[in-house]
């Protein structure tokens, strides 16, 4: 049940969501999807339980990748795409035949799958929620005049493209990536800004990532004719 206006100290709301596990989740367990991709592209994961074995190797490759190049490769200037390519290659090393390499087509397919809605399901209440915000003028139960939605998540830089692929309107503002549009245009987005641990360099629950979200919100509001500031908004992280 939504709070009433009498319960709200302010008339506007900044609402920040996590992404993975809150707005969307994998539509197939990742070890299963990796094992299926391997079989399709000629990498023979011939074990009694290929899904479990691929899952074990994926976890190992992921941990080793984070140790060698933290923050999905950002810490060493490798970048997230090359970092994930290395994880995929390392995952399937135990099943490669002499002289065989991980097929590039399989690598490209997995990278694409987990950058779009091909690899994920959006939770059933997400799109109706954003539709409600678009039509909030006719929704008496929503108590705030203006609602700005942001993302704060421990993730690499694929999150905006995943959300966009579900039909949500995602603003381009990220830490280090300004939005050149007007403030009014930015507030028309479903999600006005995205704060990633990949960009900030620290993860939740570290204070730095929340400070970065406040800064992004300040930048989103700057230049508005109505003079709204961060202090005019309730904040629900």
Order of helices and strands: EEHHHHEHEHEHEHHE
**Biggest sheet: strand arrangement:** 5-6-4-1-7
Q: What is the end-to-end distance?
A: 18 Å
Q: Overall 3D geometry?
A: elongated
Radius of gyration: 21 Å
> In CATH terms, what is the fold-level topology of the largest domain?
Rossmann fold
Please state the structural category.
Answer: alpha/beta
Number of helices: 9
- The CATH architecture assignment of the largest domain turns out to be 3-Layer(aba) Sandwich
Mean pLDDT: 90
Helix content range = 25-40%
- What percentage of the residues does DSSP assign to strands (E)? 5-15%
User: How many β-strands, per DSSP?
Assistant: 7
Tally of domains:
2
Largest sheet data: 5 strands, parallel
Reading off the top of the CATH hierarchy, the class of the largest domain is best stated as Alpha Beta
Low-pLDDT stretches are 1-7
Describe the structure.
The chain is an alpha/beta fold. It folds into two domains: 133 residues, Rossmann fold (3-Layer(aba) Sandwich); 95 residues, DNA polymerase, domain 1. The strands form two sheets. A five-stranded parallel β-sheet has the order 5-6-4-1-7, sandwiched between helices. A two-stranded antiparallel ribbon has the order 2-3. α2 packs across α3 and α3 packs across α4. The radius of gyration is 21 Å and the shape is elongated. The N terminus is likely disordered.
């Amino acid at each position: 049940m939504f709070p009433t206006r009498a319960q709200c100290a302010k008339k506007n709301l900044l609402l920040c969501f996590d992404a993975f596990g809150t707005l969307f989740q994998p539509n197939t367990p990742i070890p299963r999807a990796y094992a299926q991709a391997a079989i399709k592209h000629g990498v023979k994961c011939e074990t009694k339980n290929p899904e479990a074995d691929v899952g074990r190797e994926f976890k190992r490759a992921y941990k080793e990748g984070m140790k060698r190049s933290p923050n999905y490769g950002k810490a060493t200037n490798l970048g997230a795409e090359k970092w994930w390519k290395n994880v995929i290659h390392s995952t399937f090393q135990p099943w490669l035949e002499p002289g065989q390499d991980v097929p590039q087509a399989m690598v490209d397919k997995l990278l694409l799958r987990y950058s779009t809605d091909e690899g994920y399901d959006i939770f059933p209440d997400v799109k109706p929620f954003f539709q409600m915000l678009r039509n909030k003028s006719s929704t008496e139960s929503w108590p705030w005049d203006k609602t700005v939605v942001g993302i704060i998540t421990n993730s690499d830089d694929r999150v905006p493209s995943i959300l966009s692929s579900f039909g949500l309107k995602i603003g381009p503002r990220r830490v280090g990536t300004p939005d050149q549009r007007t403030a009014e245009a930015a507030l028309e987005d479903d999600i006005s800004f995205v704060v990633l641990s990949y960009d900030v360099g620290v993860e939740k629950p570290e204070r730095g990532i929340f400070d970065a979200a406040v800064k992004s919100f300040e930048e989103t509001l700057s230049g508005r004719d109505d003079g709204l500031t961060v202090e005019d908004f309730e904040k629900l992280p």
